[in-house]
Amino acid sequence: MRPLARRRKERQIPATPPDQVTEWTEHASDGDRTLRAEQWTGLVVPDAAPGSPTFTIVAISDPAYTEPLLVATPLARSPQVLRELYRDRSPVEQLPLAAKQMLGAARQFVHEQETCQRFPELALLAGAVLTYAAATSPAVPTGSWDRQPRRTPGRLRRLLAQADFPPDFPLPARLRGKRAVTDHLPKGWWGQRRPRTPTAASSGTPDKPPPSLAIV
């Protein structure tokens, strides 16, 4: 199945005829636009086993763009719904982006089953709080080069990193400072517990085979 026509050397390869064509009119501030969607249904990958789940490919042509939007999905939805779902993809990724990149959740590692469930929840909650606080606060420039600052979580995080947490803040009784000294311990990826690599015996066993038995 080929949703779009393509050229190979001097040969023009046409697109596969669609199973269904849908057209609708969208109202916008710059005028009405007619969108066209071509659908190919009941598709499987080439090496799929019998009885494998199928998917649908939709090519949505919008006059505002030079190339059509290709969407592959297992959902039985109309082209209009699939287009709106795709346009909402970037806003959905905002909270994980703020939690992982801005707050550093991507550099933390946990191993216990309960912690693996709790850590993403707390990270998404912190990312949501940071995003909301940045959106409702005045825009703060990162530096003198930031001529047009925006209300982004990254700029707010850099501003908060410059402030010291007040030691006399009335924290709940269950929250307390960790007094253990951990500055000398490796953090992040370097702090993972890994099995020790077996070393050569101390009875004169060579670390590598002799030249006559070397593996090339």
How do you describe this structure in short?
The protein has 216 residues and is an alpha+beta fold.
Structural class: alpha+beta
Number of helices: 5
List the strand order in the largest sheet. 3-4-5-6
Taking Cα atoms only, what radius of gyration do you get, to the nearest Å?
A: 28 Å
Question: Beta-strand level of the residues, as a percent range?
Answer: 15-25%
Helix content: 25-40%
Task: Profile the largest sheet.
Answer: 4 strands, antiparallel
Give helix and strand order, one letter per element, not per position. Answer: EEEEEEHHHHH
Low-confidence stretches: 209-216
- Number of strand elements: 6
- Tell me, what's the shape? extended
Q: Mean pLDDT, as a whole number?
A: 83
What is the straight-line distance between the termini? Answer: 45 Å
Q: Main traits of this protein?
A:
216 residues, alpha+beta, two-stranded antiparallel sheet, 5 helices, 6 strands, 19% strand, disordered C terminus
Characterization of this structure:
The chain has helices at residues 79-87, 89-92, 94-102, 113-136, 153-161, and strands spanning 6-8, 11-13, 20-28, 31-43, 55-61, 69-73. The chain is built from 5 helices and 6 strands. The chain has 216 residues and is α+β, with helices and mostly antiparallel strands. Helix 3 (94-102) packs across helix 4 (113-136) and helix 4 crosses helix 5. Among the domains are: 11-77, no CATH class; 88-142 and 150-162. The strands form 2 sheets. Strands 3-4-5-6 form a 4-stranded antiparallel sheet, with helices on one face. Strands 1-2 form a two-stranded antiparallel ribbon.
